[in-house]
Amino acid sequence: MRKAIDQPRFGIGWRNNTRLTDLDFADGIALMAEEDHVCLEMTTNLALDSAKFGLKISQEKTKIIRTDQTQNSRPIYIGQTELECVDQFTYQRMETFRRK
Question: Where are the domains of the chain?
Answer without folding.
Answer: 2-86
